[in-house]
Structures are given as structure tokens and as C-alpha cells.
Amino acid sequence: MGYKQLFIFLWLTAAIVGSVYGQQIPRNQPQGQQRSPQGNQDSDGQRRGLLDDSTKMVYGPKTSLFYYEKYLRYNRFEQMEVDTSLTGFHNYEPVANTWYRYQDLGNLGSAAKPVFYEVPRQIGRTSGFHVYDLYHNSADSIKYFNTKSPYTQLDAFFGGGNRNKLDIAFTRNITPKWNVGINYGTIRARKMLNPTRRDDNMVVNDSYSFHTNYQSDNEKYFLLAAVTRMKHRVNEQGGIIPPEVDTTSIFFTYEDSKVWLRNSRATDLRQEYKVYHQYEILKGWQAYHVFDKKKQEVTFFSRLATSDSLFFNANRFHSSDTTLLHSRRDTTNNQHHFSEWRNEVGFKGDFGPVYYNAYLKLRTGRMASIFFDTNNSFTELFLGGALRGEINENWSFEAEGEYLIPDGYRIQGLFVSPFIDLSYTKALYKPTLAQQKYRGNHFRWDNNDFSSVGVDQAKGVIKIDLPNLRIRPNLTINRINNYIYFNREAMPEQASGEAFMVMPGVNYHLILSGKFHWQTELIYTAITGGAADAFRIPNVFANSRFFFDGPLFNDNIYVQLGLEGRYRSDNFADAYMPSTQQFYLQDHFNVFAYPVVDVFLNFRINRTRVLFRYNHLNAGMMEQNGYFVTPYFTGLKQMLDLGITWAFFD
Questions:
Q1: Is residue 224 part of a domain?
Q2: With pLDDT > 90 as the criterion, what percentage of the chain qualifies?
Q3: Region 526-539 average pLDDT
Q4: What value does the CA radius of gyration of the chain take, rounded to a whole number of Å?
Q5: 393: how many CB neighbours lie within 10 A of its CB?
Q6: Which residues, 6 or more positions from 259, have their beta carbon under 8 angstroms from its beta carbon?
Q7: Is 386 inside any structural domain?
Q8: Residue 18 phi, psi (nearest 5)
């Protein structure tokens, strides 16, 4: 973070603090509420409806509610208040916000993959280019609002090393039943390894989305619509050159590190259009339709007349016609274009305490490339349904299934009680299009003989609630067969055997003296079977934070101050190949065990939240000078992150 951004941040923080103490809310007036200007109380009937008996404004989180499409679709409609909590607020980056359940390249916006195996929600074809999913606000994740006043949210984060992130959201109701909104987000993250200038960015991201929701006056018709777009550009570095290749290359020198790539860049461009609407035909019975259109364009470019050529494999795939851009011997120019259309029609409803749903879904799509002779196209037809029963708010069960005609399926069941939660998932899902067929300057493959991947997953959580202590022992068991992964040559391969994962874990939250909190997550993973080597998951994965949480200064400021640590045991973590945008197996670089400790301060003044986080507090105190998150990509060094969010409700 530069001096200019630091000055702006501190100036804004001081201005906010000054405004709080310069115009302090009377103690007998609830926090976050202000008196109306005199003389206006009776001038407008609508305004009087937003005032309580003490003429206090009630605009705030309770008047700006939101929900997701899935709440409406599954008849579990719930409108939630905007988030003003402090717990975990300091983990503003997408990877940190998952409590580090993703492996990235050590920088905000870099390629990332889940640490643990996840059963895909989509059992049909996908593009297979998923390393930037975390940074895309997909149409399925849009928040739809119902506001009594215009609502604006501004989140500004200034990370050390010029890792900056800005998110702006605005929404308002046009009528009581019609809302429109817009979101804009950007990431500017300078290279952590060997930047050559102040604005030598590794990541440049620009994203926006538009959304609207409408309900008819008779409340029978509901419509949700959204458009999203992301352009994610990455100046790839390939990692630190190993000392055995260049004896002058040294780990943990960060800005002075020697890296492989300086003239290579990747781009992931995504656009989505979505419409969901439903109509209540009879009381408790609705028909609905979903339309989706998605586009993803993935490119990689490198100048091979530079030293970047030393990073890539020697073999080349090109045409004899060197006038073609992708066939020039002095450049790499890979491009793949994925598109998808989806239409789903169905009916749903409630019969007493039981919810039911049935649908028919058609997906068509393709993967195109300048290297392809013909596009890799697909057409898929699905039948699906769901059933849910609620005995009361504490006891319930759910079952859902989807059948991809003729050879794919996903079945999931869930049982919830006050004492234990149990779930089971069984699925057979298709290989991705990138795994099946790929053409580029450095890699080429055809895997039309790949079989679908099968998985059985069982989960259980025991609920133990004691005074000041919440414990959740849990167990996950996976059985995976025909798993497809990228092997040591960075090529897709299908495992012939099965992999069995047994993953016991525990989460707990201990409260001491009402103001001191200790939260911990611990997972142990054991993998056996013929395909065990295809999964590189650390045996021990742990996160923990200890912090003070409480009000200060006559309850005007709410504060969280504490330490947060994370740990992964030794493992040969997957390496990253930028030209194909895939993580792949490797056996020569052990990402050694290393505990990382951060210190953080989060506080809230009225509706404004501020964070300070000092990363890697224990740097220089360990046997190693730093740590790795991916082979040849270091984690953060000691640096300070700052952030602030404002919420405006009028």
C-alpha cells in the first residue's frame, strides 16, 4: 500500500471518527438512528410511515433486505438484513474469506483451486476453466433487494504491496414491488514477486452486474433477472526460478525474486444472462421457467522471443501457415471459447409441511477454438425433482435428484435435527470439455474415451451446545472412481482405481467472560485406494482465531481485536500451468508445514466498518524465512492491510 492510499484511508477514518464525536447520538437514543429535521415530520405521509413514535429515522439494515434466487425457487423465502458483522471481516480477499480452503498463487486475484475435493453441482459438461471462479459474481449468486430507501454499499480495501480491491453496490425500489440495482467491482494487485515498477500489476479485474426483481400486485407473478460480466487479466509469472536451475535465484526475497515469466498474460472473460420467473396457478402451486446464457472466453499469450520461452515445453503445435496468429513460432496464442444456453421449466409447491418440485431442463453448448477443425458441442436433457419435509423448525429432511439422460445423475439427501445433521450424495458427472479436448501451442489432447466420474459422499455433524461453548465434531467420507486429474506432464489422465477419503474434523467456538472468543476448525484427511495419489490434500488442515469482541467508548464503537492462525501439514501440493490454466501433479516440491499468524483489528462506528490486519506476524521467528502456498509461489510477507466499508440507506 502506497503513502497516497494510506493518507486517504487515514483521513477518511479520522473524518468518520470526528463526525461521531462531533455529533454524538444522545445516550437515550438507540445507536444508528437519528432525529428527523424539525418541521418535516408532518409534511409527507410516506415519510411519517418511516418514523417511529419518537420521530426517529428507521432507514437501516432492517429496511434494506435481500434474498437469493434459491430462496424463492425452493419456497424457503427469507429476506435478510445486509451484513454489518465484524467476525471474519478482516479476511476480505476471496481466498481468505473461505478461511483459506483454497490454494492460490499467493496474491489477490491469482489462480485458485479448492484444497478439498468438492462434488460438482453441475453433472453435465462445463468449460473446465475454473481457476478464476472465486472472483466472478455469477448470476446464481446475485443478491436481490427489497429496500424502503435507496441503498448504497461501498467497500474499499488497500492491501500491503498495492493489493487493492473496490466494490460498489447500489439498489433502490422503483415501486414497492419492483427493485433495480447495479454492482461494480475491481481488483488491482501488484506483483508480489519481482515487480519492475509501482503499477506492475499481476492482476487487473473489472466486474459489473445489473439485476432487477419484480412482483405483481396480486403477488402471483415473480420475476428475477440479472446480467453479469467479468474481465480478469493476469500477467503470469510462472513462479520463482529454482536455485538448482539458477544458483543466483533465492527464495523469500519477494520483490527481488527471479521469476520465469515477464511477457505472458492470461485473460478470462465471462458474461451471463439469467431470467427466473414463476406464476402461482393455484394456492400453493407454482409453475416456473429459468433461462440462462453463459459465455466464457479464455486466452493465453506469451512472447517466445524473450526468456519466457525457457519456461515452456520444447514441443510446439502450429500450422505450416505462419501468417496465422496462433501459428507463429515466436508467440504463444491460445484461445478457447465456451458458450451455453439453458432452459428449465417445472412446477413446485407446498402440500402442508411438504415441499415438492419437478422439472425438465435442456442445455446446449460448445467449446470453440482457433485450433479446432470442428467445435466440441453438446446437448443435454435432464429430469429432476426435490422433496422437503419440515416437522418443525428444528427437524426436517430434504431429498433432491437429477437425471442426465442417459448416463448421468446426482442424488442428495439431508436430515437435520437438534442433535445431528446427516447428508448423503451420490453422483455420476461428465468430464469437462477442457479435459476432453484441448488445442494449444504447447499442449494438445483428445480424450473422447474418458468415462464419467462417480462419487459417493457421506457427511455427519454432531451438535453439542453448552453454556459458552459450541462444538461440532464432524466426519466426511468420500469414495471417488474414474477421477480425472492433470498428471505430472500437465496432461489430463483418468485414474483406473478408486480413492477413499476419511476426513474427521471438529469446529468449536468458546466464549470466555462474555467478550473473549476462541474459534477453531481442524480437519484430518486420510486417503487410500488405487487413485489416492491423484489427490494432494494436506493431512492436517487447521484455522484458529482468538479475539476480544465488545463495545468501547460508551458503546459508540464495537471492536474486535485478536490473532488468527492457519496451518497445513507437509504436502506435494499441485503446481500450476499458466498456458492451460490448470493445476497439475508434481513430486519434487514439498510445500512444507508452516504456521502463519496474523493480527487484526476490526471496528464498527454506527454503520461504518474498518479493518486493520498485519499479515505474517511470525515472519523471522521460524526455521524457514517464509512459506509457500503453491510450488515456487510464496505466501505473503509482513505487511499491513487496511479496509473500510460504508453503508448508506438514504
A1: yes
A2: 83
A3: 97
A4: 26
A5: 8
A6: 193, 194, 237, 238, 239, 240, 241
A7: yes
A8: -65, -40
Q: Rounded to an integer, what distance in angstroms lies between the CA atom of residue 629 and that of residue 134?
A: 17
Please write the tens of the pLDDT for every residue from 162-192: 999 999 999 999 999 999 999 999 999 999 9
247-254's contacts with Cβ under 8 Å and 24+ in sequence apart are 251/625, 251/626, 251/634, 252/624, 252/625, 252/626, 252/634, 252/637, 254/192, 254/193, 254/634, 254/637
Q: How far is CA 365 from CA 8, 376, 525, 582, 639, in A?
A: 47, 9, 37, 22, 45
Distance CA 77, CA 68 (A): 9
pLDDT exceeds 70 at position 3: no
Backbone angles phi, psi at 222, to 5 degrees: -130, 135
CA distance 265 to 268: 10
The pLDDT, as a whole number, for residue 650 is 79
The stretch 30-41 carries a mean pLDDT of: 35
Structure-block grid coordinates of residue 118: 468438492
3-state class (DSSP) for residue 470: strand
Stated as kind and residue range, the H or E segment containing 180 is strand 178-190
Give the separation between CA 250 and CA 194, rounded to whole angstroms.
12
DSSP 37: P
CATH assignment at residue 71: 2.40.170.20
Give the whole-angstrom CA distance, residue 597 versus residue 586: 28
Q: Does 583 fall in a domain?
A: yes
CA 383/CA 393 separation, integer angstroms: 30
Q: DSSP letter string over 536-564?
A: ---SEEEEEEEEEEEEETTTTEEEEEEEE
Whether 569 and 540 have beta carbons less than 8 Å apart is answered as yes
Indicate the number of domains in the chain. Answer: 1
How many whole angstroms separate alpha carbon 62 and alpha carbon 146? 10
DSSP string, 94-138: HHHHTTS-EE--SSTT---EESS----S--S---S--TTGGG---
- Using pLDDT thresholds of 50, 70 and 90, give the confidence band for residue 633: very high
β-strands 557-568, 201-215: how paired? unpaired
Q: How far apart are CA 34 and CA 38, in angstroms?
A: 12
For residue 169, the 8-state DSSP code is E
Nearest to 521 by CA among 502, 540, 548: 540
Give 453's contacts (C-beta < 8 A, 6+ positions apart).
428, 429, 430, 431, 480, 481, 482, 483, 484
Cell of 394: 428444528
Q: For residue range 557-582, what is the model confidence (pLDDT) as tens digits? A: 999 999 999 999 999 999 999 999 99
Question: Could you tell me if residue 614 is inside a domain?
Answer: yes
Q: Within 13 Å, how many C-alpha atoms sit on residue 430's CB side?
A: 21
Residue with cell 503446481: 575
Across the range 340-356, mean pLDDT stands at 96
Give the length of the chain. Answer: 650
pTM here is: 0.90
pLDDT tens digits, residue range 279-334?
999 988 999 999 999 999 999 999 999 999 999 987 777 666 666 766 778 889 99
Q: Domain range for residue 522?
A: 64-648
